[in-house]
Amino acid sequence: MHPVMLRRVGAVLFTTAALVLPAQAQWATTYESFYLQAPHNWTFRSNYQNADRLFNAFDYGHAILYETLFTKPDAPASLLEETIYDRLTTQILVRPPKVPLEEVAIEPLYARLAPEAKAMFDWSHVLHRQIYDVLADERIADAAKDAEVQRLLDFYRTRPDLAFSSKPKSMALMQEQPYSLAFRQKYPKFNGLIWGYHWFQVGLYEPLLVGKTVAERQAGVRATVARFWQMLREPPASLPYQMPMTAVISPAFARRYPEAAIIFDNLHSMHDVVSDILANPAVPRNRKRAEIMRAARLFRDDTSYVMPVAAWLVMSKEMGVENMGGPAVGFTPALPTPTVTRGAVMQHDDATGRMTGMKVGEMVGGSHANMDHGTPPDTTKATATGHAGHMMPAAADSAKPHAGGAADPMHAVHHPEVAVTAKRVLDLQRALLRDPEIRRRIVADTVLRQLMLESFEGLSASERAELQRLLAVPSRSARRSR
Amino acid sequence: MMRHTAAMAGVTMVLMTAPLRAQTDYYNTDTGRPMLIEDAYALEKRGFELQVAPMRLTRSAGGVYTWGIEPELAFGIARRTQFEIGLPIAYVDQRGGAGGTGITGVEMSLLHNLNVETSIPAFAIAGDLLLPVGRFAPSETYASVKGIMTRTFSKLRMHVNAQYTFGDSLAATALAPVGGPSQNVEVSRWIAGLAIDKPLPLRSLLLSAEVYARQSLRSGEALEWNTGVGVRYQIAPRWVMDGGLGRALTPTDHAWFLTGGGAYAFGLPWRKR
Questions:
Q1: Residues in chain B whose beta carbon is closer than 8 A to a beta carbon of chain A?
Q2: pTM of the full predicted structure?
Q3: Fewest CB within 10 angstroms: A57, A226, B199, B228, which?
Q4: Parallel, antiparallel, or unpaired: how do β-strands B72-78 and B239-250 relate?
Q5: Whether the complex's predicted ipTM surpasses the cut of 0.85
C-alpha cells in the first residue's frame, strides 16, 4: 500500500478508535439478579424490626454520600460534616424508612458514573441481609444454618462480575493508593459515621450467633443497636477511628463464616475506596470512573493484594478493636478509648499481618504511646526493605491470635484502660506491703497471704519479684538458687 | 345488536389495555402500571412478578364504561431480559344496555435492555404479540416492536418510547366507539411519547407524568394526543402498588381512564449444581 494511503488509513483507524473507545468504556451491561428465594427471606425484618430499619437508613447515608461527593465537589466540607450528617443522625436514623431504599433514586448521577460498582455493592448488601435472615430464623436448626449460609455464599458467587473476593485483601489496597485518605481527612466525622454503619452491619451477626436462646438473641441485638446509638453521642470522638474489621468486631461470626467475614471487609474497604476517589480532587472527573472500575476489579480478583487468612486475623487484632468501636457483644458500658489518632494508617506485613509501622497518624494512650514503631515512617523504604523500620516487639507466633488476657502485652496495648487499672492495683499492692503493720497481718494470716500471692498473677517477672520480696516470699529463681 | 356492541367494545378493551412490563420495585416503571410510557429496564434475572389484580376503568366516547383486569406473570428470563404473559379480561357496561364479560386475547411480550445508563442513556427493545384468544379478542394476531430510551437527571428521569404495530387496519364502526385516552398499544399503528418521573426515595414513592401521540390502527381516525399522571409506591420489599389517571387531549370527547393495582415479586428457587 502506498505510504500516503497507509497514513490515511491509519489516521482514519485512529480517529475511529478515538471516537469508539470512550463510548465502549461507557457502554455498561451489568444487570440485576433476584436474591436467593428461600423461606427465610425477610425474616430478620420480621423479627428485628428496629435493627432492620436502620439498614434502610444506612442505604440512604451511603447513597447521599456518593451523590454529594460526585455532584458537589466544590461544596464546603460543612455540607457533609454538618448539614447532611445532622439530617442523617437526627432525622433519618431516628425515623428510618420502612423498606429497603432504591439507592439509584438517591444517587442517580453516581449510579450513572459507575453502575458496575453500584451493582457490586447492591449484590453484597443482599448477601448481608440474607445472612441476617438465616441467623434470625428460629425455624432453622443451628447446624443447618451453616449449610444455608454456605448456599448463600455459593449463590453470591454465581455473579463473579459482582462478587467481592473471599480472599483477605491488604489494607494497602484501601488506604495506600494515590487517592487514598482524601475522604477521611476532609470529612472525618462523616467517615466515622460510615465506619459506625459498618461496625453495626458486621456487628449484628455476633448477638445472633452467640445468643443461645431467642431471648438472648433479641437482647443481644437490642444491646448492639444501643451501642450503635452510643457511638453517635459525641461525634467524631465516639465514632470508630479505624475501619471496623469483622474478625474482631464479630469474632464468633468470623470464626464460623470466615469467607463471609472477608467478603464484608472487602466490601467495606471498597466503600472507603470509592469515597476517596470521589473526594480526591487529584483524580480528574474524567478519570473517576476508570479508577473505580480498577478498584472494583482488584477487589473482585483473588490475586491482587491478597494476604493469608491468618495474617488477616493478626492484622485485624493489631489494628485494635478499641479503635473500631469495640466488640459487638460483651462490651463495657463506656466506649473503648482509641489508641491511635483518628483515621491513622497502620502498615502491616502482608505475610504475617503484623503491624510494621504508622504511615499516617500516631499511637496515643496506654502502653501504645511508648511503643517504637520506627518513626519517622518512610513507607517507601519500609516496603523496599521488608519494613526495616519496624521495631514492634516480636511475637513468638505472629499468626497466633492474642490470648486476650490481662498479661498479654497486646491486650494492654489495645486496652489502655486495662493497663491503667493494672498499674493502680500494683501501686496499691506496693503500698499495702510497705506498711509494716499490714504486711505483718497479711503474713500472719494464711488466707490473706494466699490471696495476696494470687494477686501477683499477671504481673511481670520483675514486679512479681519486687512484691514477693516485700512479702518476704522467696522468688522462684531465688528458691532454685538455694 | 347489543351483543355485537359488547363484542366490539371488548375488542376495544383488549386493544386499549397495555401489555404490562413487570419490575419489582417502585422506581422502575412498567407499561400500564400505571403509565403507558415506561423505562428501559427489565425485571431482575430469575425474578418473577405477579400482577395480582391490575384494574382499569375506562370511559370511552359515547359513555361506554369498560372494566378490565389483567392477571399477568413476568419472568426475568435472562440477563436484562424479561418475558411476560397476560390474560386480560373485560367487562363492558354500556349505558342503557346489557354488559358482557370475556377474555380479550392473550398478550406476550419480550423486553431486552441493551445497556445500563452511564453518560450514554439506557436503551431497550421490546416485541409484543396479541393473540386472538377469547370472546372479545381481535380476529387476528397483532405484533408490535418498540424502542425505549431512559435518561436520568439529578432530580428526574425521562423516558421516550416509540412503537409500531404490524397488521391490517381495522374498519371503523359506529358500534365500536374507540376513543378517549386509549392506553392503546396494539390498536395503534404507532405511538410516540415521553414520560417524566420524580422519585421520593425516602418514601419509596414515584410520581410520573406522560404525554403521547397515537395514531389508531382503525382507518379514518384522527391523531390522538393523550396525557396521564400516576404514582408507584413500595409498601413492602415484595409489594408495589400503583395508581393512575389520564384523559384524551384530542379529540375532545372527554374520555378518561383510572387504573390501580399491585404486584408481588418472588424468585426462582436455586440449588448449587
A1: 24-27, 42, 44-48, 76, 79-80, 113-120, 152-154, 157, 199, 201-204, 206, 234-238, 265-270, 272
A2: 0.80
A3: A226
A4: unpaired
A5: yes
